[in-house]
Design brief:
2 helices, about 100 residues, two-stranded antiparallel ribbon, mainly alpha
């Protein structure tokens, strides 16, 4: 007896069902919530925790570390640090 396999369109349709579940709310399962947020077990692969605030979010790429709110803040912070370092290097070279 062989195990039935889904083709790609069937797989995508099944994945979308996890977001349509009546117990799914912002990446968390309402049924498993016992006072502490619990990541939905059906969408565990696609939900990550933010490295700054710890909120659950759905990443748009496999490299995402921050939720959308923290991503903007961290991008600005890192850019300021990069520019500060660049400025210090240019002033040290001109001396």
């Amino acid at each position: 007896m062989s195990i039935p396999r889904m083709n790609y369109p069937q797989y995508r349709k099944a994945r979308k069902l996890t977001h349509e579940c009546c117990n799914y709310c912002d990446g968390n399962c309402l049924l498993l919530d016992d006072g502490e947020e619990c990541v939905c077990v059906q969408s565990r692969d696609s939900v990550k925790r933010c490295a700054v605030c710890g909120a659950a979010f759905t990443p748009k790429s496999n490299r995402a570390k921050y939720c959308p709110d923290c991503a903007v803040r961290m991008r600005r912070k890192q850019e300021a640090e990069r520019q500060r370092k660049r400025y210090l290097q240019s002033t040290q070279l001109s001396r």
